[in-house]
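User: Can you predict the 3D structure of Sporulation-specific N-acetylmuramoyl-L-alanine amidase? Sequence below.
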Amino acid sequence: MKIMIDAGHGYNTPGKRSPDGLKEYEFTRAVANYARRLLESYQNVNVFFSHSDERDVPLQERTKSANTLKVDLFVSIHANAFGSTWNDANGIETYVYVTEPRVSYELAQKIQRNLVTSTGLKNRGVKTANFHVLRESKMDAVLVECGFYTNPEEVKLIRSESYRRKCAESITKAIVDQYKLIKEKASSTSTTTPSGPKPPSTSTAKGLYKVQVGAYSIRENAEGLVRQLESDGYQAFITFEES
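Assistant: Sure. Here are the predicted structure tokens for Sporulation-specific N-acetylmuramoyl-L-alanine amidase:
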């Protein structure tokens, strides 16, 4: 299963920060990193990122990347806001597209239930929206709002690593349940060599043969492909060329 995790916004996105300066992306990227580690402990799961620490990735590029990679699930992680000053808006809410796709809606319900149970925050429910990442993604897709950074109490949680891990665990648990993922077995002590491509046959032809299986503008996606190839028994590496 291929999963695209989308950490909402970026370091330099205008606004999208608490009244005291906490950037939403600091929270969303942390949850995304925790979620990837958890998800990759399951069999046949490859996780890709739509975001980048180096630049703010446009929404169109995020969904295009997910569609090009033909991922099975798109999960967009956010923290919420009401205005730009401190207020008492609070709680958790999860979104699906306005047509309420069945699998997406079922997953959203599981995520919502897990987050509310684990955090103890107000249940604002599963809602529908015409958000770009939900509308333009050609796979199951959900968007999660993990509390309000304009709420002085909830922003304390959003700053904490324990809360970030808790959010990642709740989202992962829902995905595992929805798609019936199976935990990877403990590493074997077997010395069996993984099967890989057969060496090329001897040939008298002169020349240089090259094989490239992907090119990405986001390093995390390239790393995801390397992990997938290595899990299939192939050797893979990343090179970088400046444009």
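The domain at 2-179 is CATH 3.40.630.40 (Aminopeptidase). The first strand starts at residue 2 and ends at 7.
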